């Protein structure tokens, strides 16, 4: 074990615990799960003692033939998926259906949002030159008709990784011309030319998550992110290429009020956002923000109706909904097949 500024740094092979620094295979340091543990704290993961999850938030364990086949493909082609890196509760359901959200540009983010469990560090410009071909080949092997591409923030790159992102989209389209691509992107520091680079790459849907209401943005998101910055990115994407659908996502349960939810939805519509998803925030580790409330399935139904009344083409809302959940069903206008009333029983 070595040290960096007095902080122990573990080799990746040792599998650092949540909140510890470790050395990646590419040779730079990162923090496991994104947020460093406070000095003297136990490095724990999960729900705080005494706080029980409601029944509607219990997801099935990820098992099944489809799950193992998708995991094997991801491992073979050295691809990171947000399904794994963000501890998504729907990983079993989605992977058994033969779908996955591919996370580009590695598994280490340059930002440290206090809701997110993706590892944090500075990749110092590292990129996998083979990733566009590997992503395209994996989409082909999985026979996907719809794929979501997301990525870590890469503030260490001059363009935030926009050119690499676009190269991955083009490679997928070249090998899989019938596959629709949704790009769930970083904000590229608000540089609109970089946003246009991705929008022009051949995608059908451009997504950038606002994550939370205006008041909670900087307790929740990294200081380099911004409420107005996300709105500007989404508005520019729609102006630049109106045929591309735009999409955003909002986590609930962080202390926001109904009035703030309504205001955020109105702001997204004012930016011409077409699609929105609403889901429950779940605390990934004890080093992250705590859950202020568990939103009931009935409340999610009410929020969905408010969003539709504002003019969104669809609002997929439910306790386990994430921004890419059942993304290919977003235009079916049936809450992506979710039955929140049945879930609450």
Task: Give the structure's gist in a few sentences.
With 345 residues, this protein is an alpha/beta fold. 30% of the residues lie in helices and 17% in strands. The chain has helices at 65-76, 82-85, 91-96, 131-142, 162-175, 192-199, 217-220, 227-240, 258-270, 297-310, 340-343; strands at 2-4, 7-11, 21-23, 29-31, 80-81, 101-104, 108-109, 119-121, 146-151, 180-184, 205-207, 245-252, 275-280, 314-317.
Write up this protein.
This protein is of the alpha/beta class and 345 residues long. It has helices at 65-76, 82-85, 91-96, 131-142, 162-175, 192-199, 217-220, 227-240, 258-270, 297-310, 340-343, and strands at residues 2-4, 7-11, 21-23, 29-31, 80-81, 101-104, 108-109, 119-121, 146-151, 180-184, 205-207, 245-252, 275-280, 314-317. The strands form 2 sheets. An 8-stranded mixed sheet has the order 5-6-9-10-11-12-13-14. It has a 6-stranded mixed sheet with strand order 1-2-3-4-8-7, with no helix packed on it. It is globular, with a radius of gyration of 19 Å. Mean pLDDT is 86; it is low at 1-10 and 42-50.
Outline: globular
Structural class: alpha/beta
How is the largest sheet built, in terms of strand order?
Answer: 5-6-9-10-11-12-13-14
Radius of gyration, in angstroms, nearest whole number? 19 Å
Order of helices and strands: EEEEHEHHEEEHEHEHEHHEHEHEH
Distance between the termini: 50 Å
Portion of residues within helices: 25-40%
Structural features:
345 residues, alpha/beta, disordered N terminus
């Amino acid at each position: 074990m070595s040290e960096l500024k007095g902080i122990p740094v573990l080799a990746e092979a040792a599998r650092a615990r949540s909140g510890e620094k470790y050395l990646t295979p590419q040779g730079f340091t990162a923090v496991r799960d994104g947020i460093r543990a406070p000095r003297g704290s136990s490095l724990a993961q999960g729900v705080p003692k005494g706080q029980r999850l409601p029944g509607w938030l219990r997801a099935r364990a990820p098992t099944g033939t489809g799950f193992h086949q998708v995991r094997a493909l991801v491992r073979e082609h050295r691809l990171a998926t947000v399904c794994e890196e963000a501890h998504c509760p729907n990983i079993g359901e989605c992977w058994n259906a033969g779908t996955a959200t591919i996370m580009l540009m590695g598994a280490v983010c340059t930002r440290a949002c206090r809701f997110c469990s993706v590892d944090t560090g500075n990749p110092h410009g590292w990129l996998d030159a083979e990733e566009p071909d590997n992503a395209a080949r994996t989409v082909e092997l999985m026979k996907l008709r719809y794929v979501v591409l997301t990525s870590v923030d890469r503030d260490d790159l001059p363009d935030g990784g926009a050119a690499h992102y676009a190269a991955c989209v083009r490679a997928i389209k070249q090998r899989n011309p019938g596959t629709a691509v949704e790009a769930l992107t970083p904000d590229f520091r608000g540089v609109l030319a970089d946003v246009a680079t991705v929008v022009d790459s051949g995608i059908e849907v451009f997504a950038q998550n606002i994550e939370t209401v205006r008041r909670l943005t900087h307790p929740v998101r990294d200081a380099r992110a911004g409420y107005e910055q996300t709105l500007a990115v989404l508005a520019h994407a729609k102006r630049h290429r109106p045929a591309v659908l735009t999409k955003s996502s909002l986590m609930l349960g962080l202390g926001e009020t109904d009035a703030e939810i309504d205001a955020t939805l109105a702001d997204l519509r004012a930016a011409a956002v077409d699609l929105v998803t609403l889901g429950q925030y779940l605390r990934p580790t004890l080093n992250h923000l705590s859950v202020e409330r568990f939103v009931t399935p009935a409340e999610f139904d009410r929020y969905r109706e408010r969003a539709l009344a504002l003019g969104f083409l669809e609002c997929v809302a439910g306790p386990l909904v994430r921004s890419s959940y059942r993304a290919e069903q977003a235009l079916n206008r049936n809450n992506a097949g979710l039955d929140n009333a049945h879930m609450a029983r």
